[in-house]
## 1
Amino acid sequence: MTTSAPRVLIVQHEDSVSPDLAGARLAAAGVETAMAGPAWVPQDSRDFDGVLVLGGTMGPTDDEAAPWLPAVRHLIRDAVDTSTPLLGLCLGAQLLAESTGGRVHVNPRGPEVGVHDVAFAPEADGDPLFGRFAGTRKAAVEFHWLEVAELPAGAVNLAGNAHSAQQAFRVGRNAWGTQFHPEALADTVDRWAHSHADLASQAEEITAQARALEPELAERWAGLFDAWIGVVAKRSADADR
């Protein structure tokens, strides 16, 4: 029996926020990808083995500024309902929370920008993506002004820190969100930091920090994406039987 390559839909909200490391790992694994975004968002996930939802500068309910967001939230709910593997990054995690009964607000502690430690909870033990990190602290790129204030009912909080309690979480069986940016390496941090006027005084320091830690960040979070791709591949193989 011939097994087709897994197919992943990537939801990209803005050109400046691209798949980066996640895209590289998908390509290395031979995964077929399709891009969704402002001009087109499918009604459901049935044609795909996985859905990757990227970040963006808008909030998860900024429908007037980003009129495609209701379609993205509908797509996310469908993926959760059908157990289609889904991974939401930053805004993608906030959309996952909002779509399934959680709540997002402006972080009262202000923005979290740069490389910061994230503490993985004991509850991460056994998780297909984050189990290897349970009980540890790991550096990750952060770039957010909003945060998930309340998780959906039944969701499992997998990681947090002093700035945002919900840094990684799982909804249902196959949907994950990260408030941090595992896909972002130094060049991405440099681009984002220099694009924000209010970060001008910090841009060089933030970029240098990410550059110094890039080998560590790349190795660690490539493993995260590879683990998610493994979940996607299993879904694809099961569908081919």
## 2
Amino acid sequence: MGYLHEIDSIKLDVLREIGNIGAGHAATSLSKLLNKKIDMKVPDVQIVTFDEMMEMVGGADNIVAGVFLRIEGDVPGSMFFILPIEQATNFVQDMIGDTSVNLAPPYDELSISALQELGNILSGSYLSSLSDFTQLSLYPSVPALAIDMVGAIVTYGLVEHSQVSDYAIVINTELKGEEIKVSNTVNGHFFLLPDPDSFSPLFQSLGVKDGD
């Protein structure tokens, strides 16, 4: 079960604050992109089991929009950003200014590009903040988008990760804008899955030593 069980509430607060710094950068980028005021925050960070992770986004069979990317650099790993399909649709409609957009097959290329850009902005902002805090070199690969069942989307990232742990770091996000639908709030989840060899340097950089 490893390092994740050694992360106490103080370390989770640190991860949440890092997330909020990244969210601030992401909100600035999105505000410029959409030409409207966007606020974003990270209300909490959790350590959850894989089963709990699936349930957080409606169960393994729930259809969602998921952006997957590899984390490269000092602590390689995988990251997913998951949005409920309804909220992903509404956000894309706002992003490209077309209320007729529907995230259903056959997929519109512009809609897919918009969601990839959203994932790129959010993940890049978070990893930049995490890198600044830990002094580790972290940068994202080009994000890949999938619209599918949650279980299918995250399977790849779980295969290697599950060899050393049954847990994941979940960074919950709230994105708000005056003209964004869904009660003016879009709720998404980052799932951070460090590779096996990345646990030690990542958590040591947060003050958690191997064997503590």
